[in-house]
Design brief:
Blueprint: E1 14-18, H1 22-33, E2 37-42, H2 47-50, E3 55-59, E4 72-75, H3 80-92, E5 96-99, E6 112-116, E7 119-123, H4 130-143, H5 146-165, H6 169-185, H7 192-204
Helix pairs in contact: 5-6, 6-7
Length: 206
Protein backbone atom coordinates (compact mmCIF):
# COMPACT_ATOMS: atom_id res chain seq x y z
CA UNK A 1 0.00 0.00 0.00
CA UNK A 2 1.21 3.50 -0.81
CA UNK A 3 2.43 5.67 2.07
CA UNK A 4 0.84 9.01 2.88
CA UNK A 5 3.12 12.01 2.14
CA UNK A 6 3.45 14.16 5.27
CA UNK A 7 5.63 17.26 5.57
CA UNK A 8 7.02 18.17 8.98
CA UNK A 9 8.96 21.13 10.34
CA UNK A 10 12.31 20.09 11.85
CA UNK A 11 13.76 23.58 12.11
CA UNK A 12 16.14 23.68 15.10
CA UNK A 13 14.76 20.35 16.32
CA UNK A 14 17.02 17.52 17.49
CA UNK A 15 17.59 14.94 14.77
CA UNK A 16 19.80 12.02 15.71
CA UNK A 17 21.90 10.11 13.21
CA UNK A 18 23.60 6.92 14.36
CA UNK A 19 26.43 6.25 11.94
CA UNK A 20 29.38 8.21 10.69
CA UNK A 21 29.96 7.04 7.13
CA UNK A 22 28.83 7.88 3.59
CA UNK A 23 25.24 6.72 4.03
CA UNK A 24 24.90 8.78 7.20
CA UNK A 25 26.43 11.76 5.43
CA UNK A 26 23.72 11.77 2.75
CA UNK A 27 20.98 11.70 5.37
CA UNK A 28 22.67 14.42 7.43
CA UNK A 29 22.86 16.74 4.43
CA UNK A 30 19.14 16.29 3.84
CA UNK A 31 18.32 17.09 7.46
CA UNK A 32 20.53 20.17 7.38
CA UNK A 33 18.87 21.38 4.18
CA UNK A 34 15.61 21.55 6.13
CA UNK A 35 17.03 23.24 9.22
CA UNK A 36 17.44 20.26 11.53
CA UNK A 37 19.69 20.40 14.60
CA UNK A 38 21.70 17.27 13.83
CA UNK A 39 23.46 15.15 16.43
CA UNK A 40 25.70 12.34 15.14
CA UNK A 41 26.87 9.41 17.23
CA UNK A 42 29.20 6.67 15.99
CA UNK A 43 32.45 4.99 17.07
CA UNK A 44 34.06 6.67 14.06
CA UNK A 45 32.75 9.85 12.42
CA UNK A 46 34.12 10.89 9.02
CA UNK A 47 36.03 14.16 8.70
CA UNK A 48 33.49 15.41 6.16
CA UNK A 49 30.69 15.03 8.70
CA UNK A 50 32.74 16.68 11.44
CA UNK A 51 33.26 19.73 9.25
CA UNK A 52 29.59 20.27 8.46
CA UNK A 53 28.14 23.42 9.96
CA UNK A 54 25.16 22.75 12.19
CA UNK A 55 26.27 19.27 13.24
CA UNK A 56 27.37 18.14 16.68
CA UNK A 57 28.93 14.72 17.09
CA UNK A 58 30.39 12.24 19.56
CA UNK A 59 32.62 9.31 18.73
CA UNK A 60 31.20 6.51 20.86
CA UNK A 61 28.59 3.77 20.73
CA UNK A 62 24.92 4.71 20.48
CA UNK A 63 23.01 4.88 23.76
CA UNK A 64 19.28 4.95 24.35
CA UNK A 65 19.59 8.33 26.08
CA UNK A 66 20.64 9.85 22.74
CA UNK A 67 16.97 9.86 21.75
CA UNK A 68 15.94 12.23 24.54
CA UNK A 69 14.13 15.25 23.02
CA UNK A 70 14.71 13.92 19.49
CA UNK A 71 11.95 14.25 16.89
CA UNK A 72 13.50 11.60 14.68
CA UNK A 73 16.45 9.21 14.44
CA UNK A 74 18.22 7.62 11.51
CA UNK A 75 19.92 4.28 12.05
CA UNK A 76 22.74 4.21 9.51
CA UNK A 77 25.36 2.04 11.20
CA UNK A 78 26.98 -0.98 9.56
CA UNK A 79 25.74 -3.20 12.41
CA UNK A 80 22.23 -4.53 11.86
CA UNK A 81 21.83 -5.48 15.53
CA UNK A 82 22.57 -1.90 16.56
CA UNK A 83 20.16 -0.60 13.92
CA UNK A 84 17.47 -2.97 15.20
CA UNK A 85 17.98 -1.80 18.79
CA UNK A 86 17.77 1.84 17.72
CA UNK A 87 14.47 1.13 15.98
CA UNK A 88 13.17 -0.64 19.07
CA UNK A 89 14.21 2.23 21.36
CA UNK A 90 12.68 4.82 19.02
CA UNK A 91 9.34 3.06 18.90
CA UNK A 92 9.27 2.78 22.69
CA UNK A 93 9.86 6.54 22.94
CA UNK A 94 7.49 7.43 20.08
CA UNK A 95 10.37 8.88 18.06
CA UNK A 96 10.19 8.59 14.28
CA UNK A 97 12.86 6.22 12.97
CA UNK A 98 14.38 5.45 9.60
CA UNK A 99 16.54 2.35 9.40
CA UNK A 100 18.59 2.53 6.23
CA UNK A 101 17.70 -0.24 3.78
CA UNK A 102 15.30 -1.99 6.18
CA UNK A 103 11.78 -0.67 5.51
CA UNK A 104 10.04 -3.00 7.97
CA UNK A 105 12.04 -1.46 10.84
CA UNK A 106 11.26 2.11 9.77
CA UNK A 107 8.34 4.36 10.69
CA UNK A 108 9.19 6.92 8.00
CA UNK A 109 11.08 7.06 4.72
CA UNK A 110 13.04 9.63 2.75
CA UNK A 111 11.39 10.26 -0.63
CA UNK A 112 13.11 11.44 -3.75
CA UNK A 113 12.60 15.19 -3.65
CA UNK A 114 13.32 18.45 -5.41
CA UNK A 115 13.75 21.66 -3.41
CA UNK A 116 13.96 25.26 -4.52
CA UNK A 117 13.62 27.86 -1.79
CA UNK A 118 10.53 26.94 0.20
CA UNK A 119 9.07 24.84 -2.61
CA UNK A 120 9.47 21.11 -2.06
CA UNK A 121 8.12 18.37 -4.32
CA UNK A 122 8.52 14.80 -3.06
CA UNK A 123 7.73 11.48 -4.71
CA UNK A 124 7.91 7.79 -3.91
CA UNK A 125 7.49 4.51 -5.75
CA UNK A 126 6.40 2.80 -2.53
CA UNK A 127 9.78 1.11 -2.38
CA UNK A 128 9.09 -0.86 -5.55
CA UNK A 129 11.26 0.97 -8.07
CA UNK A 130 13.45 3.86 -6.87
CA UNK A 131 14.33 4.54 -10.51
CA UNK A 132 10.71 5.60 -11.07
CA UNK A 133 10.87 8.06 -8.17
CA UNK A 134 14.14 9.46 -9.54
CA UNK A 135 12.55 9.84 -12.97
CA UNK A 136 9.68 11.86 -11.48
CA UNK A 137 12.17 13.92 -9.47
CA UNK A 138 14.08 14.89 -12.61
CA UNK A 139 10.89 15.80 -14.45
CA UNK A 140 9.72 17.91 -11.51
CA UNK A 141 13.07 19.69 -11.26
CA UNK A 142 12.54 21.10 -14.75
CA UNK A 143 9.46 22.94 -13.48
CA UNK A 144 11.29 24.39 -10.46
CA UNK A 145 12.30 27.62 -12.15
CA UNK A 146 13.61 30.84 -10.65
CA UNK A 147 10.34 32.50 -11.63
CA UNK A 148 8.37 29.89 -9.70
CA UNK A 149 10.47 30.38 -6.58
CA UNK A 150 10.14 34.18 -6.78
CA UNK A 151 6.40 33.92 -7.40
CA UNK A 152 5.99 31.61 -4.41
CA UNK A 153 7.74 34.07 -2.11
CA UNK A 154 5.80 37.02 -3.50
CA UNK A 155 2.40 35.33 -3.26
CA UNK A 156 3.14 34.31 0.29
CA UNK A 157 4.01 37.89 1.21
CA UNK A 158 0.82 39.40 -0.23
CA UNK A 159 -1.64 36.93 1.29
CA UNK A 160 -2.62 39.26 4.17
CA UNK A 161 -3.49 42.16 1.85
CA UNK A 162 -5.37 39.96 -0.61
CA UNK A 163 -7.34 38.39 2.24
CA UNK A 164 -8.15 41.86 3.56
CA UNK A 165 -9.40 43.15 0.20
CA UNK A 166 -11.20 40.05 -1.06
CA UNK A 167 -13.52 38.17 1.27
CA UNK A 168 -14.47 35.23 -0.94
CA UNK A 169 -12.07 32.29 -0.93
CA UNK A 170 -12.76 31.36 -4.55
CA UNK A 171 -12.04 34.90 -5.77
CA UNK A 172 -8.78 34.99 -3.80
CA UNK A 173 -7.78 31.74 -5.46
CA UNK A 174 -8.47 33.30 -8.84
CA UNK A 175 -6.26 36.28 -7.96
CA UNK A 176 -3.37 34.01 -7.00
CA UNK A 177 -3.81 31.92 -10.15
CA UNK A 178 -3.78 35.00 -12.38
CA UNK A 179 -0.69 36.42 -10.67
CA UNK A 180 1.12 33.09 -10.99
CA UNK A 181 0.18 32.95 -14.67
CA UNK A 182 1.66 36.41 -15.20
CA UNK A 183 4.90 35.49 -13.46
CA UNK A 184 5.40 32.27 -15.42
CA UNK A 185 4.22 33.30 -18.86
CA UNK A 186 6.04 36.64 -18.83
CA UNK A 187 9.01 35.18 -16.93
CA UNK A 188 9.42 38.13 -14.62
CA UNK A 189 9.04 39.23 -11.03
CA UNK A 190 5.60 40.25 -9.83
CA UNK A 191 5.02 43.78 -8.56
CA UNK A 192 2.50 45.58 -6.41
CA UNK A 193 1.13 47.07 -9.60
CA UNK A 194 0.30 43.55 -10.80
CA UNK A 195 -1.49 42.83 -7.54
CA UNK A 196 -3.56 46.01 -7.71
CA UNK A 197 -4.47 45.39 -11.35
CA UNK A 198 -5.54 41.78 -10.82
CA UNK A 199 -7.55 42.65 -7.71
CA UNK A 200 -9.30 45.51 -9.52
CA UNK A 201 -10.18 43.25 -12.44
CA UNK A 202 -11.53 40.68 -10.00
CA UNK A 203 -13.68 43.30 -8.27
CA UNK A 204 -14.97 44.65 -11.59
CA UNK A 205 -16.26 41.17 -12.48
CA UNK A 206 -18.17 40.93 -9.21
Amino acid sequence: MAQIPIFMDITEKRCVVAGGGKVALRKIKTLLAFGGNVFVVAPSVSEEIKQLEGVTWEEREYEKKDLETAVLVIAATDNQNVNHNIAKDAKEKNVLVNVVNIPKESSFFFPAYTKRGDIVAACSSGGKAPVVAQYIKKKTALEMTEQLEEANDFLGAIRPQVKKKIAEVEKRRQVYQELLKIALTEERKLTQKDVDSVINNCEDKS
